[in-house]
Amino acid sequence: MPTPPHGPDGGGPRPMPVDVGTAYQLWCGVLILGIVSTVTSLALMWRDRQAFVDLMMDQMSTMSGSEALTRDEVLALIPFGLGVAAVGSCVILGLLYLVVRQIRRGKNWARMLLTLVGVFMTLSTVPTLFGVGTGTGAESWVLGIVGILQAVLTVGAIVLMHRRESNLYFLRIPKN
């Protein structure tokens, strides 16, 4: 088990700054909202499965030289696809949580990785602010609101991870 960063005198672990603890909590909020987003997305896909099957049937009719699946076969594959999507989302969220835990231990690589992931997440939310791709229905509203809340929490966590006290903690620089 890795030990936390030590103080400048080499004795005892250096205390984690409050900003790093708060950033950890904000990242946990982002992950909880990720679970909400996953469940909502899966519910939306399940609700619109008939439209998806129609789209698949149209695409298969334009393909030549392949055996076409029947509508019932495509419809029977939907639960499997949703299961794969659910498991994939859980794996991604779990791996992200493992990285988030590392910021409490002062791992600079975790801070850098979370910064990159956070910037990507925040930039991918920008179209939602302008109503692009939001769709209709309650699920779409939930997904939009969750995306915006995730972006706000992510920006807050990134700022806190890069403040002066946090930098000293992650880079193991002695406090003056």
Defining traits:
176 residues, 74% helix, mainly alpha, elongated
Write the layout of secondary structure elements.
Elements: H1 18-47, H2 49-62, H3 71-103, H4 108-129, H5 138-161, H6 164-171
Helix pairs in contact: 1-3, 1-5, 2-3, 3-4, 4-5
Protein name: Integral membrane protein
Transmembrane segments: 24-46, 74-100, 112-135, 141-162
Keywords: Membrane, Transmembrane, Transmembrane helix
Summarize this entry quickly.
This protein is an all-alpha fold and 176 residues long.
What does this structure look like?
By secondary structure, the chain is mainly α. The chain has one domain (18-60, 68-171). It is 74% helix and 0% strand. It is built from six helices and no strands. The protein has helices spanning 18-47, 49-62, 71-103, 108-129, 138-161, 164-171. The longest helix has 33 residues, at 71-103. It is elongated. This is Integral membrane protein. It comes from Rhodococcus zopfii. The chain crosses the membrane at residues 24-46, 74-100, 112-135, 141-162.
Count of runs of 4 or more consecutive helical residues: 6
- Estimated share of beta-strand residues: under 5%
How many β-strand runs? 0
Percent helix: over 70%
Low-confidence stretches: none
Largest sheet: none
Mean pLDDT score, rounded? Answer: 86
Shape: elongated
SSE topology string: HHHHHH
Which structural class best describes the helix and strand composition?
mainly alpha
Q: Work out the count of structural domains.
A: 1
Calculate the terminal CA-CA distance, rounded to whole Å: 29 Å
